[in-house]
């Protein structure tokens, strides 16, 4: 691709907007998570700071900014400080190929889904580095879990997305969106319900959210791979977790729920509504279910999701071959 | 280490140098038996799921627990010694602090032992009030255990539901005990305060309410497939193991042996009340879970009968002992059924101002001893589930 000045400027502006989106999303999600948790647990949730507690997330982030960066003894300094940064930055790139609207894509690359899947795997590296460099056994156990979990859950995720790619014949997210209609029955979820189900399960596993939050299983490993991080180190992990959640929700919205298309007026609002509905679903199950055990987690993946994904892929390919 | 050096720190440093003197007495001794290639993990005393200050040394082979050893003493407050330097009257409030989840049963153990030694008779109304308080307390204890146990398994919501019920129980018990946590309304020869009409009304309202809620808990938590997969077949503890370690209470009953101090060594007005002893269909963690939920039902039916049968009359005997009361010389031993098992107090008195010796039997101590055997060969997550299923209250274990 020829890197003209215009494209560079476009990318810079896009990255700045994406950072704003990530931070804004974290603020919204912290509030939403706590309010929904409060609703589920029959308590008010935050209500003291600002109207209905809406400024609580801002105060929390101020606290995290102002906190001392405590560093335990005998950590591996370079990796220890590199890990949170590595957790944060690959997520930025993942937002580039997502079509937010008919003409609103940060970087319209042809192989958007490949870019996303390639860089999504990078996030686990930061977990591994954080766990390794912290010089803490809980962190190390959490890191070991994070690696095997994320690697395992990427495969059914790819299989689920590949089925949709087969269907639309393109790896371009814009093309995938354009082939779906504005109404719910014209979305890919109708044609690929099994793929959507597989994606939904592996999305929870991929983002390390409860009930699959084993890398940071609180009751077993204190806080898993980020046990030894405080202040902004912790905040960056936190931010990237929410950014990852938003990203996989966007991808689900694009691939299965018609992306920016909606019954009334196409636009970025539709993709945001769909993504946040999925985020609400993730918050809901987090506060409802107990955590699975680690071997059960891997069994769900290798014994159920992977064969189902392969079967679904084969079925899709066969149907396409026969029908077209 | 200076900034910029790429000196990788080995997180397994401890077991690579078995001769090192790093760590305390327990850790050093535990490491001596460690197999190379395994990690020694220190769970606690500050850990989210040891509920207090229990410390467990664990030797991990991957994520499998090869060996586990509980280390006690982080909450030792010398309650038994305090029994020797206080008059019996002064010592009653201590009992609420031994086990803050079931204080009234501890009250009863000590007061009962003293009454047995001095041959005091308790009015019947006081006996009924003791039973009602004790059973309400047991429900509160089991509910809190239920919430905390599900939290150990990663479900955060149930503990807040459990606290809602526990608050109601505390509201009721506040009327007769005056406090919400470390209750001490037992006196030698009776109780200190009578129950009013509001107490009985709240009790009568609470029983059907909790039965409704228990149905909801069954649908929300007990029948949850993740919870069942996490608990079924995990940490089986058979009768033989229980008897070797002296485990009592729901753990023994889940193992299949119907032993209950309320039936085996009847005290108070329990012989007049009709209640079953729930025994578990299975002896694993899920069986212990079911037994405790069944015990909540049993306690509810006991309270129901007690409210119906409670007579009018005095709540404390005539010429009840005062603060300067001296125990007669002799020994006595009194056991009651606590939420965690058999609670007992053994008083030896030489007739002086203070007892010569007070020995408290805490069920949690024996139950915890099982953990090392039950957790062997399980996954770390299962070990946490087993630890939770033993229902430990650390202040009671350390006393």
Q: Which structural class do you get from the secondary structure elements of chain B?
A: mainly alpha
- Oligomer class: heterodimer
Number of helices of chain B: 17
CATH first level of the largest domain in chain B: which class?
Mainly Alpha
> The CATH topology of the largest domain in chain B is what?
Cytochrome-c3 Hydrogenase, chain B
Number of domains of chain B: 2
Give the neighbour order of strands across the main sheet of chain A: 1-2
| pLDDT < 50 runs, ≥5 residues of chain B | 1-8, 12-19
Separation of the first and last Cα atoms of chain B: 43 Å
Which series of helices and strands of chain A comes N to C?
A: HHHEEHHHHHHHHHH
Count of β-strands of chain B: 8
The Rg value of chain A, from CA coordinates, equals 20 Å
Q: What is the residue-averaged pLDDT of chain B?
A: 85
Q: Secondary-structure element order of chain B, as H and E?
A: HHEEEHHHHHEEHHHHHHEEEHHHH
Taken from the alpha-carbon principal axes, the silhouette of chain A is globular
Give the overall shape of chain B, derived from the CA principal axes. Answer: globular
Summarize the amount of helix of chain A as a percent range: 55-70%
What descriptors fit this protein?
heterodimer, A: 324 residues, mainly alpha, two-stranded antiparallel sheet, 13 helices, 68% helix, B: 399 residues, Cytochrome-c3 Hydrogenase, chain B, three-stranded antiparallel sheet, 11% strand, globular, disordered N terminus
How would you describe what is shown here?
The complex is a heterodimer of chains A (324) and B (399). Chain A has 324 residues and is mainly alpha-helical. Chain A has one domain (67-323). Helix content of chain A is 68%, strand content 2%. Chain A has helices spanning 5-40, 56-66, 77-94, 112-120, 123-133, 137-168, 173-178, 188-191, 193-206, 218-221, 231-256, 268-286, 294-323; strands at 99-101, 104-105. The longest helix of chain A is centred in the N-terminal third of the chain and has 36 residues, at 5-40. The radius of gyration of chain A is 20 Å and the shape is globular. Chain B folds into 2 domains: 13-71, no CATH class; 79-398, Cytochrome-c3 Hydrogenase, chain B (Orthogonal Bundle), CATH 1.10.645. In chain B, 49% of the residues lie in helices and 11% in strands. In chain B, helix 4 packs antiparallel against helix 5 (103-118), helix 6 packs antiparallel against helix 7 (157-177) and helix 8 (197-222) runs antiparallel to helix 13. Classes of the chains: A mainly alpha (324), B mainly alpha (399). Chain A binds chain B through residues 37, 40-43, 74-78, 132-133, 135-138, 140-141, 210-211, 213, 217-220, 222, 287-296, and chain B through 1, 3-9, 11, 39, 41, 47-49, 60, 63, 150-157, 160-161, 164, 221, 224, 226-227, 229-230, 379-382, 384.
């Amino acid at each position: 691709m020829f890197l003209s000045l215009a494209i560079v400027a476009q990318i810079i502006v896009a990255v700045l907007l994406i950072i704003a989106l990530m931070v804004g999303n974290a603020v919204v999600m912290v509030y939403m998570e706590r309010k929904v948790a409060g609703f589920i647990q029959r308590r008010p949730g935050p209500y003291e700071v600002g109207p209905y507690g809406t400024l609580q997330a801002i105060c929390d982030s101020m606290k995290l900014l102002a906190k001392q960066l405590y560093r335990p003894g005998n950590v591996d300094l370079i990796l220890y400080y590199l890990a949170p940064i590595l957790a944060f930055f690959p997520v930025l790139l993942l937002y580039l190929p997502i079509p937010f609207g008919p003409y609103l894509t940060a970087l319209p690359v042809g192989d958007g889904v490949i870019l996303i899947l390639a860089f999504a795997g990078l996030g686990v590296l930061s977990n591994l580095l954080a766990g390794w460099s912290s010089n803490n056994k809980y962190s190390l156990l959490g890191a070991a879990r994070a690696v095997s979990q994320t690697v395992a859950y990427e495969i059914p995720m790819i299989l689920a997305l590949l089925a949709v790619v087969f269907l639309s014949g393109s790896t371009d997210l814009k093309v995938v969106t354009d082939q779906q209609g504005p109404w719910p029955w014209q979305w890919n979820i109708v044609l690929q319900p099994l793929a959507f189900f597989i994606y939904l399960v592996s999305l929870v596993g991929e983002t390390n959210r409860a009930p699959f939050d084993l890398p940071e299983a609180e009751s077993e490993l204190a806080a898993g791979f980020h046990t030894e991080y405080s202040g902004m180190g912790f905040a960056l992990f936190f931010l990237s977790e929410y950014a990852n959640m938003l990203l996989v929700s966007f991808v689900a919205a694009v691939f299965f729920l018609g992306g920016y298309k909606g019954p009334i007026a196409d636009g970025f609002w539709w993709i945001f509504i769909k993504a946040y509905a999925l985020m609400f679903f993730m918050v809901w199950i987090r506060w409802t279910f107990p955590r699975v055990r680690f071997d059960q987690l891997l069994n769900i993946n290798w014994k159920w999701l992977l064969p189902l994904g392969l079967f679904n892929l084969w079925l899709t390919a066969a149907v396409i071959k026969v029908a077209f | 280490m200076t900034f910029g050096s790429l000196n990788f720190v080995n997180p397994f440093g401890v077991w690579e140098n078995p001769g090192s003197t790093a760590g305390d007495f327990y850790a050093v001794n535990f490491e001596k038996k460690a197999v190379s290639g395994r990690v020694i993990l220190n769970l606690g005393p500050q850990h989210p799921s040891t509920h207090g200050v229990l410390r467990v040394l664990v030797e991990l082979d991957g994520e499998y627990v090869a060996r586990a050893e509980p280390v006690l003493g982080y909450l030792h407050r010398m309650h038994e010694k305090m029994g020797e330097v206080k008059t019996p009257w002064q010592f009653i409030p201590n009992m609420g602090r031994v086990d803050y989840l079931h204080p009234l049963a501890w009250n009863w153990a000590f007061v009962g032992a003293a009454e047995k030694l001095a041959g005091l008779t308790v009015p019947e109304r006081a006996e009924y009030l003791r039973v009602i308080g004790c059973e309400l307390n047991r429900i509160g204890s089991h509910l809190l255990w239920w919430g905390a146990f599900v939290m150990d398994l990663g479900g955060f919501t149930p503990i807040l539901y459990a606290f809602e019920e526990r608050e109601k129980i505390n509201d009721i018990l506040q009327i007769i005990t005056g406090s919400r946590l470390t209750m001490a309304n037992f006196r030698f020869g009776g109780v200190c305060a009578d129950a009013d009409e509001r107490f009985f009304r709240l009790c009568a309202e609470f029983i059907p309410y909790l039965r409704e809620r228990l149905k909801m808990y069954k649908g929300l938590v007990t029948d949850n497939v993740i919870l069942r997969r996490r608990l079924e077949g995990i940490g089986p503890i058979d009768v033989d193991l229980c008897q070797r370690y002296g485990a009592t209470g729901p753990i023994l009953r889940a193992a299949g042996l119907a032993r209950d101090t309320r039936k085996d060594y009847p005290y108070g007005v329990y012989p007049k009340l009709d209640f079953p002893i729930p025994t578990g269909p299975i002896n694993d963690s899920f069986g212990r879970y079911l037994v405790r939920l069944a015990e909540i039902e049993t306690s509810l039916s006991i309270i129901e009968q007690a409210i119906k049968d409670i007579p009018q009359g005095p709540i404390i005997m005539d010429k009840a002992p005062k603060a300067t009361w001296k125990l007669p010389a002799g020994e006595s031993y009194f056991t009651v059924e606590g939420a965690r098992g058999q609670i007992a107090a053994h008083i030896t008195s030489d007739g002086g101002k203070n007892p010569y010796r007070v020995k408290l039997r805490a069920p949690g101590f024996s139950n915890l001893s099982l953990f090392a055997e039950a957790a062997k060969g399980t996954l770390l997550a299962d070990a946490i589930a087993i630890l939770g299923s033993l229902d430990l209250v650390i202040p009671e274990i350390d006393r």
